[in-house]
Amino acid sequence: MTETWQSIAQRKKTQQTSRIPPEWRLRQGITSSAGKANVLDVPRSCGILSSKELEITEKYDATALAAEIASRRLTSVEVTIAFCKRAAIAHQLTNCLTEIFFDQAVPRAAALDAHLASGAPPLSPLHGVPISLKDCFKVPCVDTSIGLAALCFKRSQYGSTLVSLLLSAGAVLYCKTNIPQTMLALDSHNNVFGRSLHPSHPELTIGGSTGGEAALLALRGSVLGVGTDIGGSIRIPAFCGGLYGIKPSAGRIPLGNIEGGTPPANHRVQLSFSAGPLARTQRDCELFLQTVAGQKPWEMDADVHCGDWQSQGEDISGKKLVVGVARTDGITTPLPPVQNVMNDTVAALKRQGIDVVELDLAPLLSRCQSLANKMMSLEGGNMMKDLLDAFNEPLSPWLVGRFARRQPRTLAETLDFHRQRMELENLLLRVWKGELGQTEGKRLDAIICPIAPHPVPPIDRWNAVGYTSDWVLLNCPAGSLPVRPVTSEDLKCEITSPAAENSWDKVNRELWTSVDRGMYLDSPLSVQVVGPKLQERRLCQALATVDDALKKEGFGSDVVRRAMESHEPKLNVRSGRL
Length: 578
Known about the structure:
Blueprint: H1 5-18, H2 28-31, H3 42-45, H4 51-59, H5 62-70, H6 76-94, E1 97-100, H7 102-117, E2 130-134, H8 161-168, E3 172-177, E4 189-190, E5 194-195, H9 211-218, E6 224-229, H10 235-241, E7 244-247, E8 274-279, H11 282-294, E9 322-325, H12 336-351, E10 355-358, H13 362-365, H14 368-375, H15 382-389, H16 411-432, E11 446-450, H17 466-473, E12 478-485, H18 488-491, H19 503-513, E13 524-530, H20 536-552, H21 557-566
Parallel strand pairs: 2-3, 2-6, 9-10, 9-11
Antiparallel strand pairs: 1-3, 4-5, 6-8, 7-8, 7-12, 11-13, 12-13
Helix pairs in contact: 4-6, 6-7, 9-10, 11-20, 14-16, 14-17
Pfam families: Amidase
Keywords: Hydrolase
Organism: Lineolata rhizophorae
């Protein structure tokens, strides 16, 4: 009998379910609430996790867990089991996982504990810490299907370069997380694994393409996750989940042997993606980047730039920061909640003594989105379409009308795209030096801007990607920083501009004028912090300074999480109507 994509998907989901131990499975009455209610409290109330396992998964971030494991106050085995159990719970509530390999993780953790017990030092600052991975990363003896029927049940023989690095660093890998079909969509749905759901706002998207990671982290089923980003695929899900996430510059984190459904070395010609961390604290993102740098990845992957952590940008810790503020990309005008959170952020930074400079980057950024879109798939998406057509897979809802076969770009077109990109990169260098963009002649330490022109939108309605893809085109490291939730006061605000400026702006306005705004209440609002090209250390220092300033002013991730945990969905999401 010839298999169909439906039969392959059914086999895959059956295999996935079998890898969750029976004693870790939720009662049917609990799982029936998935996609209909706020499920953030379920791990605490379901009775599967012990009091110590709740403490392990809720009291510590990755940095603190690493210290506890290194000092042998906690073992990697007990930490790993706690996160495996909580990941199993999170998956049953949000469909956030793809591959489950808890059976590999626990023996691995035991070996790492034995290493410390022998008196040997930790292998790295991440020794014994469980880390979750986006599905595109290859783990030996584990499938890497990226949600495509054509790639299911084909175990990877070798791990991705980053996976090998993390294993050498003593990390424990235990699961992979869900992604959208093609990994070019902003809502994590595919035909094999299905859709990942937002744990506190079931009517809203959890984002893409690293959406499974965001759902898992929001439910504390992971303490540190790894994703990829070519248009916003780390920063967007981090925003949706009220998390921190950093997209490094291309060439900073190894990308070898990652499954993308594209021709090998494609990233050397077209717009290149980056791998980076998602976490619940800023310092955990920094710990990940610092640990990777300490493993000398340039000796493992020819695409990685040589440079230890100390060389990744000038030291700006302790100095009075000069932060530029770019409020619009010149294409899509931010909606009231986004304008409000930018105002709140700027006011808080000024009160904390940070020098804030209003920038006019619209002339530069308005040229980026279209160019980034053209450079994202120079080969026309044909290899990915071949994989879909192999089993006649239909497109996911968000991709309908957005993804199709195209003629590959010519050499002349490709060269012209790179010429335009170089011109924009050089213009941005002048902005950093205070020579362009109304910088008042001040050299900038960082730039703050929105992640999107709208709040976290309903499922399959993410609109503009320019606010994130611009910084991929310009190859700047950028991070997502939670500020506060959407409030009832935000919902009362109206759009003041008289008319939409273009089709993108028109669709964006409809996310405010043609929906029940109540769906946005208590959802996260974040800002984006950007650093100069290949200066990840400098970006992390700027992120830490801005994060600290916001927390001193009563904003920050803790405020966002409390709002998400207390949120009561108001809409009839069962009907699918908004």
